[in-house]
Specification:
The protein is built from 7 helices and 2 strands, in the order E-E-H-H-H-H-H-H-H. The chain is an alpha+beta fold. The radius of gyration is 20 Å and the shape is elongated. Bound molecules: zinc ion (ZN). Zinc ion binds next to loops.
Protein backbone atom coordinates (compact mmCIF):
# COMPACT_ATOMS: atom_id res chain seq x y z
CA UNK A 1 0.00 0.00 0.00
CA UNK A 2 1.33 3.39 -1.01
CA UNK A 3 0.70 6.14 1.49
CA UNK A 4 0.66 9.87 0.94
CA UNK A 5 4.15 11.37 0.98
CA UNK A 6 3.06 14.96 0.56
CA UNK A 7 4.65 17.48 2.91
CA UNK A 8 1.27 19.04 3.59
CA UNK A 9 -1.36 16.37 3.02
CA UNK A 10 -4.93 17.61 2.87
CA UNK A 11 -7.68 15.13 3.62
CA UNK A 12 -10.67 15.59 1.35
CA UNK A 13 -12.60 12.36 1.85
CA UNK A 14 -12.64 9.24 3.98
CA UNK A 15 -12.53 5.66 2.77
CA UNK A 16 -13.00 2.40 4.65
CA UNK A 17 -10.10 0.20 3.69
CA UNK A 18 -8.01 -2.66 4.92
CA UNK A 19 -4.31 -2.23 5.31
CA UNK A 20 -1.80 -4.94 6.02
CA UNK A 21 0.64 -4.39 8.84
CA UNK A 22 3.60 -6.68 9.46
CA UNK A 23 4.30 -7.38 13.11
CA UNK A 24 7.45 -8.94 14.49
CA UNK A 25 7.26 -10.93 17.70
CA UNK A 26 8.62 -9.16 20.77
CA UNK A 27 12.37 -9.21 21.12
CA UNK A 28 12.81 -10.35 17.56
CA UNK A 29 13.20 -7.05 15.82
CA UNK A 30 15.00 -7.48 12.56
CA UNK A 31 14.33 -11.19 12.31
CA UNK A 32 11.69 -11.55 9.70
CA UNK A 33 10.90 -15.25 9.68
CA UNK A 34 8.35 -15.09 12.46
CA UNK A 35 6.66 -11.93 11.28
CA UNK A 36 2.91 -12.04 11.03
CA UNK A 37 0.67 -9.96 8.80
CA UNK A 38 -2.43 -8.39 10.25
CA UNK A 39 -5.26 -7.05 8.13
CA UNK A 40 -6.41 -3.88 9.81
CA UNK A 41 -9.65 -2.19 8.80
CA UNK A 42 -9.31 1.57 9.03
CA UNK A 43 -11.24 4.61 7.99
CA UNK A 44 -8.51 6.41 6.11
CA UNK A 45 -8.34 10.06 5.21
CA UNK A 46 -7.43 10.46 1.54
CA UNK A 47 -5.05 13.19 0.47
CA UNK A 48 -6.41 15.77 -1.94
CA UNK A 49 -3.09 16.15 -3.77
CA UNK A 50 -2.09 12.54 -4.43
CA UNK A 51 -5.31 10.59 -3.77
CA UNK A 52 -3.49 8.24 -1.40
CA UNK A 53 -4.36 7.43 2.20
CA UNK A 54 -2.66 9.58 4.81
CA UNK A 55 -0.63 7.67 7.37
CA UNK A 56 -0.44 10.10 10.26
CA UNK A 57 -0.25 9.81 14.05
CA UNK A 58 -3.95 9.07 14.43
CA UNK A 59 -3.86 6.30 11.81
CA UNK A 60 -0.71 4.90 13.38
CA UNK A 61 -2.48 4.82 16.74
CA UNK A 62 -5.63 3.23 15.33
CA UNK A 63 -3.60 0.48 13.66
CA UNK A 64 -1.55 -0.15 16.79
CA UNK A 65 -4.66 -0.45 18.97
CA UNK A 66 -6.27 -2.84 16.51
CA UNK A 67 -3.18 -5.06 16.44
CA UNK A 68 -2.89 -4.96 20.24
CA UNK A 69 -6.47 -6.20 20.45
CA UNK A 70 -5.70 -9.01 18.01
CA UNK A 71 -2.56 -10.05 19.90
CA UNK A 72 -4.50 -10.02 23.15
CA UNK A 73 -7.25 -12.22 21.74
CA UNK A 74 -4.75 -14.70 20.32
CA UNK A 75 -3.08 -15.13 23.70
CA UNK A 76 -6.25 -14.90 25.78
CA UNK A 77 -4.93 -11.89 27.70
CA UNK A 78 -7.04 -9.61 29.87
CA UNK A 79 -8.48 -6.58 28.11
CA UNK A 80 -7.97 -3.02 29.41
CA UNK A 81 -11.61 -3.00 30.57
CA UNK A 82 -11.11 -6.24 32.48
CA UNK A 83 -7.95 -4.93 34.16
CA UNK A 84 -9.68 -1.69 35.16
CA UNK A 85 -12.66 -3.66 36.52
CA UNK A 86 -10.40 -5.93 38.59
CA UNK A 87 -8.48 -2.96 40.03
CA UNK A 88 -11.68 -1.09 40.88
CA UNK A 89 -13.20 -4.16 42.50
CA UNK A 90 -10.22 -4.13 44.87
CA UNK A 91 -10.75 -0.42 45.43
CA UNK A 92 -7.16 0.44 44.49
CA UNK A 93 -5.70 3.39 42.63
CA UNK A 94 -3.33 2.72 39.74
CA UNK A 95 -0.36 3.41 42.04
CA UNK A 96 -1.66 1.06 44.73
CA UNK A 97 -2.47 -1.63 42.19
CA UNK A 98 1.07 -1.30 40.77
CA UNK A 99 2.52 -1.84 44.26
CA UNK A 100 0.22 -4.80 44.79
CA UNK A 101 1.55 -6.46 41.61
CA UNK A 102 5.15 -5.23 42.11
CA UNK A 103 4.83 -3.43 38.79
CA UNK A 104 5.60 0.07 37.55
CA UNK A 105 2.55 2.39 37.58
CA UNK A 106 3.43 3.31 33.98
CA UNK A 107 2.92 -0.32 33.02
CA UNK A 108 -0.54 -0.36 34.58
CA UNK A 109 -1.43 2.91 32.83
CA UNK A 110 -0.28 1.44 29.52
CA UNK A 111 -2.41 -1.69 29.96
CA UNK A 112 -5.46 0.29 30.97
CA UNK A 113 -5.09 2.81 28.15
CA UNK A 114 -4.84 -0.05 25.66
CA UNK A 115 -1.42 1.25 24.71
CA UNK A 116 0.27 -2.10 25.12
CA UNK A 117 -1.08 -5.56 25.85
CA UNK A 118 -0.13 -7.19 29.12
CA UNK A 119 1.69 -10.50 29.04
CA UNK A 120 1.00 -14.05 30.11
CA UNK A 121 3.00 -13.88 33.35
CA UNK A 122 1.35 -10.61 34.42
CA UNK A 123 -2.05 -12.05 33.57
CA UNK A 124 -1.43 -15.12 35.66
CA UNK A 125 -0.30 -12.93 38.57
CA UNK A 126 -3.41 -10.73 38.28
CA UNK A 127 -5.70 -13.76 38.08
CA UNK A 128 -4.14 -15.30 41.18
CA UNK A 129 -3.62 -12.21 43.36
CA UNK A 130 -7.01 -10.76 42.50
CA UNK A 131 -9.03 -13.93 42.91
CA UNK A 132 -11.61 -14.03 45.69
CA UNK A 133 -9.78 -16.90 47.37
CA UNK A 134 -6.47 -15.04 47.52
CA UNK A 135 -8.07 -11.80 48.69
CA UNK A 136 -10.02 -13.55 51.43
CA UNK A 137 -6.87 -14.96 52.97
CA UNK A 138 -4.73 -11.84 52.36
CA UNK A 139 -7.01 -8.97 53.36
CA UNK A 140 -4.20 -7.30 55.28
CA UNK A 141 -2.05 -6.78 52.20
CA UNK A 142 -4.70 -4.69 50.45
CA UNK A 143 -5.63 -2.78 53.62
CA UNK A 144 -1.98 -1.91 54.12
CA UNK A 145 -1.74 -0.48 50.58
CA UNK A 146 -4.87 1.59 51.08
CA UNK A 147 -3.73 3.08 54.38
CA UNK A 148 -0.17 3.74 53.21
CA UNK A 149 -1.11 6.93 51.34
ZN1 LIG B 1 -0.67 13.36 -0.60
Amino acid sequence: MEFCQCKKPRPYKFLDMEITERVLPRGRRGINNKAKDYAVPIRAAICEHCDRPIYGPSEKKEIKLHINNQLRKEKGLLSPQEIIAIRKKLGLTVEQFAKYLKANPKTIYAWEANYCPSNLIANELIRIKCSDTYIQTNQGEIQQLKSAQ
